[in-house]
Amino acid sequence: MAPQQDKTSTEASTAVTLTINDHTYTVGPEVPSGTRLVDFLRHKIQLVGTKTLCREGGCGLCTVVATVPDHETPGRTKTISVQACQALLYSCHGWSISTIEHLGSRYDGYHQLQKALHGFYGTQCGYCSPGMIMTMYGQMSTSGTLTAAQVEKSLDGNICRCTGYRPILDAFKSLAVDGDPALKERLTDIEEAYKDGCHKTGECKGKCGRKQPGGMCTRSSKLATRPSLVPVLNGPFLTVDSVRWYHPVTLQGIYNALQTLGRNEKFRLVVGNTGQGVFKNDGPYTAYIATSGIKELYTVNNQSPLELGANVSLTRAIEVFQHLATSDPGYLYLKTLADHWQVVANVSVRNAGCWAGNLMMKHTHPGFQSDIFLTLLAADAELTIGNSSDASITHVNLEQFLKTDMSRKVILSISLPPATANTKLRTFKITPRAVNAHAYVNACFKMELNAGDGFKVLTKPTLLLGGINPQFIHAAKTENFLLNKKVSDVKTLLDAAKIMEREIIPDSHPQDASPEYRKSLAVSLFYKTVVGFLGEKVSPRFQSAGPNIVRPLSSGRQSFDMNQETWPVGEPVPKLESAIQISGEAAYLDDIPYHPNELHGAFVHTTVANAKLKSVDTTEAMKVAGVVTFVNASDIPGTNSFVVNAGPFPDPIFVQDRVKYAGQPIGLVVAKDRDTAYHAAKLVIVEYEDVKKPILTIKDALKAGKKHTSMNFITNTREPYTLGNAEEALKTAAHTLTGELSQGSQYHFNMEPHSARVVPTEDGYDVYSTTQWPTETQATTAQVLGIATNSINVSVRRIGGGYGSKISRQHIVSTAAAVAARKVKQPVRVVTDLTTNMTYAGWREPFLSKYEVGFDGNGKIEGAKIELIADTGHVSNESAVSFLFGAVQNAYYIPNLTFTPSMVNTDTAANTYCRTPGHVEAVATIENIMEHIASYLKVDKMQVRLNNMVAPGVPRMFVPPHQKNVVKDEILPLLTTQASIVQRQREVDDFNKNNKWKKRGLSILPMWYGFDYPSMFRYGIQVTIYEHDGTVAISHGGIEMGQGINTKVAQVAAYVLGIPLENIVVKASDTMVGANSMVTGGSFGTDLCAHGVRVACTSLRQRLDVVKEKMKKETGKDPTWLQLVKKCHAEDVDLSQRYWTAGKEHPERYDIWGAAALELEIDVLTGVFVIRRADIIEDSGRSMSPYIDIGQVEGAFIMGIGFYTSEMVKYDPNTGQKLSNGTWEYKPPMALDIPADFRITLLPNAKNPYGVLGSKATGEPPLCLSYAVVTALRQAITAFRQENGDSSWFQMDTPITVEKVHQWCGVNTSQFQLYE
């Protein structure tokens, strides 16, 4: 598929034509029929800057910008962002595509969006960065300019796990016409630094090396004009691998295509293909009919009634709704529809997807919670349907449509009538997070009311609910009851609510919210609607029931010491990799070009959790053209385990006999391309026997006797850790309490999936792996192949996020690829899709805490027994529970403490370390205890915490005495002042007093984090100075995964050697220089590699200084750096230095302190909440790189917010299958979920006599502070409960979803009041 010369299509052809980055491509049957645009970009024409992960339109990585015909305005085009994982290549006929490579690069200069993201430190691992930029470029191209609100709304489909979103938002808002002046001023500074021209010649060739820190060239991007389209007069028809693709340009063309299809043929009408992200298993199809060339289907008739053609996108429909709502009083209700549709999916999906396609999904899948269906039904819309057999037209309403046989029929248009002046419409979509999520319940309530007659219902109202059960649409009995009733009457309201409560019967599925919540929510939404309609007629305190919580535009502040005397250490510089990340030039594993004979693997998984494998039939899979072989346990020449140093117990790569968990790999299909491998893997037939009900939770495991006490690493026995005599202290304490706390799991959500590439070589194998631990990758590969370790070469340039996911779980992929490569004697690449990644590998381990605590009348703890029980999955290799004896004390002193670390085994994937493993759960446990004590004593929670703070010099359980309690003496006073805690607490109290149905909570959480360097964390380091030009290269045994390890080691090297930072590069990590290095994790890798580089550079500096002094004596002046280097080389001075960070030479341990104040607001009636503000003060010592450290604080905190709120994992209780296995069912935070006001302070004047150059680690500790969202939620919920007579303690297991907030408030219909 080479680019073709531009040409005009004047007749039907057997190929499709599209333009990509100004090159025209003609694609024919040589490309498979179901090829997605993203795969064509990445694998056919090697534009790998566009990334991919979810392949369901839910992560935003694959965003590109498309210029397409604007059929409303002949001869014109429109430019939009689309997700390339959803667009089918053959449906892109006539499009012009721009990818990240087209915006700018280090050779051609950068686009202003790229410059902004780079300059605002908006990248970490960088895997999401191209998608972020292209999303914003699409918005700029569509609207011409940006506003701050557009920036926030545009990022509703882009996930970033690293940054916490704040710097990304700031970067793009700096380009907004209404952006914060401070942001715009900062942007001016950035652009000033990157002005055009060369300081040498005045003309930039992109090669001069004039780079800012981070590798950014100074030239501006040449991209300025909108791309042109290939004119298309007649659509092509082609047959690709027996699948037909039609591109009609008239309605009759659609009808003709439909009439050619056999009665039982399965076909798909294609506009945006966005539905495949929801229903991934629809198909396969024998024919596709692309309707994007039919102008009639894009009709917009603004006359009454409003008419929209079937192909009108959701985005365009929203624009039409907004226009008519302000220009025609009869269509005022369309503003409500526009607002609702703006929270359907995300911008790119709404740009590509049409309303008719959404309705067809509802038609095909009645259980689909279609917001489009429900809102159009509420609007009394009428569909026009065309019949291909005779071109006849029929008109049906939305409910009739569901019963209409749509075979060989096509939706042509929809009409929406105006509404009367008395008509009121309210719609709702209650979701697990702010955006890009399907609803727990969606609802539309429409009433024609006479406000002058007690808001009498004049006509039968429309009360529509989705998410109840597939058959439920209308609350019909309630509708009938309300006719001619006055909704201002409290009795009418309560009676209607009770009727609705009785007629709603939700179904029950494990992946859904509970039936109880959905019923209560539906009735609560009805109450919200009535209060909203009545407005100021309702008593002021009850009016808060009506409106939804409105989240303001977000903002952020960052504060840190400059410490200029140590620059470049401490200088706020961009990450070294940032410039190539923003341009898509940073190479990740799957960006490596394919070897000519490279093969691809796809796993076959188990579908039950506890059974014996009876048979595996690969017959049908092996018949698929392109399939080469099937690899399973019998093909392993060595040991069937991907564990060497990662734990004491083996963990099989492939099932051999008994299945350990659902999702466990059975084998690997190897094929000539990835799509074939995945397709064939689905054809493998697996049978099981001796199937047993799985054990999936800690409590189930306890009942089954699966618990065992973990190792006490102090006594080397399986017994509790003890300090003092907890039993005796509990007996004598004035007060005692017992309690429990369950904390769930969390998917790491590394944006780059687990991947591996194994290439046979003359002396063994080259292994490329997305690993945090190359040494273990090397060892496990040698183990499974039964060969010498020195025949395995592992190299890692960077990985797209890790968080612990790629410490050991990744080695399932690399070892399977190695076995396959050995068998076929060819290179094999295995790149997991998101579902595979989420099911075959374990996540953060869940915890159950049990405690008994004794305390005095001031809440001061005298003794406690705490047990933490970790769910390690089917094998206990990677539990953190044994190390939590310090963390469970946090910043407090418990004089008598018994800590019991325990583990249980369940029929789930072996869980693994996840950012701040165990530590965050331990901190949550003691903070929950503090909350419990305060609740019991009815005293201030913060005072209880202060009463228990550890004093200087006091020894604690296996924790050295502290010289100072920094959080008590410095951080909390500073936080109280900076965050205006006293004033804001008064405001919260006043708000709660005056608002029945909205409540706020403000909570402060302190943190102590002991940072001890484990002796086994050792890394190989090499620093080399090149004689030719004096530049420096560093290789170390750590892994760059977004945390900034390479930037920090380069800053240290530049500081010690006394050279500019831009003269230093950091090379890929490998198992030669980094031989035997430990895993990069726990923030140890960054600290110790920086320490190792400092030692190595100091040794080099000492050698160089000897020569320098000699030269100075000879010449009377200091030599330049290059003169010195050349002289040293001439005198045989070794310009390379290796260092091994031996455990005995590690820096001294140190303490990290911090605190967070978090304020939020809940909507009691729905459970929805918004974090209004978060202030964090983090003790980072003398930061080595302030913006990197601030990014670590923000990213960790937001990851913790997700862990404690929206990130719920669910299983099928019968099979054990993980149901939270994609972006449709698993919801990490997005840009609109972060605190609206997000303020970070790195503790000023913080000196660390230990660590590296006075710095402290920041990657892990801040996540512990995210438990503040739980304590703030407790305050808000408690405010409502107390107001209703319930001041009792209640257990708040996490994650705390919207559902739990509502349920813990205890809403019932008797509380639905209108008047005081």
UniProtKB/TrEMBL annotation:
Q: Which UniProt keywords apply?
A: 2Fe-2S, FAD, Flavoprotein, Iron, Iron-sulfur, Metal-binding, Molybdenum, Oxidoreductase, Peroxisome
Residues covered by the FAD-binding PCMH-type domain = 238-421
Q: Tell me a GO cellular component.
A: peroxisome
Q: Where in the cell is it found?
A: Peroxisome
Major localisation = other
- Tell me the active site: E1260 (proton acceptor)
Which residue numbers delimit the 2Fe-2S ferredoxin-type domain?
A: 14-103
Which sites bind [2Fe-2S] cluster 2? C125, C128, C160, C162
Which InterPro entries did the record assign?
2Fe-2S-bd (IPR002888), 2Fe-2S-bd_dom_sf (IPR036884), 2Fe-2S_ferredoxin-like_sf (IPR036010), 2Fe-2S_ferredoxin-type (IPR001041), 2Fe2S_fd_BS (IPR006058), Ald_Oxase/Xan_DH_a/b (IPR000674), Ald_Oxase/Xan_DH_a/b_sf (IPR036856), Ald_Oxase/xanthine_DH-like (IPR016208)
A Pfam match: MoCoBD_1
Q: Does the keyword Acetylation apply?
A: no
Give the protein family: Belongs to the xanthine dehydrogenase family.
SUPFAM superfamilies for this protein: 2Fe-2S ferredoxin-like, CO dehydrogenase flavoprotein C-terminal domain-like, CO dehydrogenase ISP C-domain like, CO dehydrogenase molybdoprotein N-domain-like, FAD-binding/transporter-associated domain-like, Molybdenum cofactor-binding domain
Q: Which residues are listed for [2Fe-2S] cluster 1 binding in this entry? A: C54, C59, C62, C85
Cofactor(s) listed in the protein's UniProt record: FAD; [2Fe-2S] cluster; Mo-molybdopterin
Where on this chain does FAD bind? K429
Q: How is the cofactor bound?
A: Binds 2 [2Fe-2S] clusters.
GO MF annotations, alphabetized: 2 iron, 2 sulfur cluster binding; FAD binding; iron ion binding; oxidoreductase activity
> What is the protein name for this chain?
Aldehyde oxidase
At which positions is Mo-molybdopterin bound? Q772, R915, G1082
